[in-house]
Specification:
- By secondary structure, this protein is an alpha/beta fold.
- The protein is built from ten helices and twelve strands.
- The strands form two sheets. The chain has a seven-stranded parallel β-sheet with strand order 3-2-1-4-5-6-12, with helices on both faces. Strands 8-9-7-10-11 form a five-stranded mixed β-sheet.
- Strand 10 and strand 11 form a beta hairpin.
- The radius of gyration is 20 Å and the shape is elongated.
Length: 272
């Protein structure tokens, strides 16, 4: 058991944090050796199992990320952009795998992640599920096959607690469509239509975000032309699919050279 990779989960009390903890502990493929929460959180100093409403498991929740990450083989991180950038620096110091599912990052945040990847193995993806990453590949292929007579719209739906929009997955899909078209997404992205916007610009890629209830994640890529429509769709009904993907990424990253990788690399779907 001690030969198994040691995993630290950040944002332990959150929806994904709890799911990641449960997934690691049930996997038989890794050991949970640390749980990190923000300073002042009620869980700090408690046994993680007790904090989650069960029996003790011998892992104490801490706000000392440096001490938690130093002995780890991998960090599973679905937190906030600022926290993720800080964790990336610590993971780089520890030379451990940093699996990032955090979304909503700025260009400066991504630059900091890229700098950390010079010293650490980072797997970053807006979505860790096999199905979504297959959808990304399909989106790129369909966009490449169809000309601009087909308008592209990305529609995503999530629970009412999600704080960023469009979702990281929607942006992954938009990037895939743009690659298929041979254009930069920033040049053709159309978001948040409201009021007298004028007619749709040919070649744009539109985004629409729905927030409500406890929707785990739904993503549609619509290709619409005169007289016909093609819709590619993925629906997630259980966050466990993301947690299983994150653990798979952490295990895949063991022994890899420093650099920034995607779930397409982990799943063997990368075209590079």
């Amino acid at each position: 058991m001690s030969d198994l990779p040691g995993i630290v989960v950040t944002g332990a009390s959150g929806r994904m944090g709890r799911m990641l903890i449960e997934t690691v502990r049930a996997s038989g493929k890794a050991r949970l050796i640390g749980a990190v929460e923000r300073a002042g959180h009620d869980w700090i100093g408690q046994d993680l199992g007790v904090a989650m409403g069960g029996a003790g498991i011998g892992v104490t929740v801490t706000d000392d990320a440096l001490a938690a990450i130093a002995p780890a083989h991998a960090v599973l991180d679905f937190t906030s952009p600022a926290a993720t950038v800080a964790f990336a620096g610590l993971a780089a110091q520890a030379r451990c795998v940093h699996v990032i599912g955090t979304t909503g990052m700025t260009e400066d945040d991504l630059a900091a992640i890229a700098a950390a990847a010079r010293h650490a193995t980072i797997v970053r993806a807006g979505n860790m599920s096999l199905g979504v990453n297959l959808l990304v590949q399909l989106t790129q292929k369909v966009a490449r096959a169809l000309d601009e007579d087909f308008d592209i719209e990305v529609i995503e739906a999530h629970h009412n607690q999600k704080v960023d929009a469009p979702s990281g997955t929607a942006l992954m899909l938009g990037e895939a469509a743009a690659r298929g078209r041979g254009v930069a997404l920033d040049a053709v992205s159309d978001r948040g239509r409201d009021g007298m916007t004028g007619k749709r610009t040919r070649g744009d890629i539109g985004f629409h975000a729905i927030r409500g209830g406890d929707i785990v994640g739904e993503h549609d890529v619509l290709f619409a032309a005169t007289g016909e429509r093609i819709t590619l769709r993925h629906v997630a009904t259980d966050r466990a699919v993301f947690a299983r993907g994150a653990l798979k990424a952490a295990l895949w990253g063991q022994g890899r050279k420093p650099g920034e990788y995607s779930m397409l690399d982990v799943l063997g779907l990368s075209e590079n």
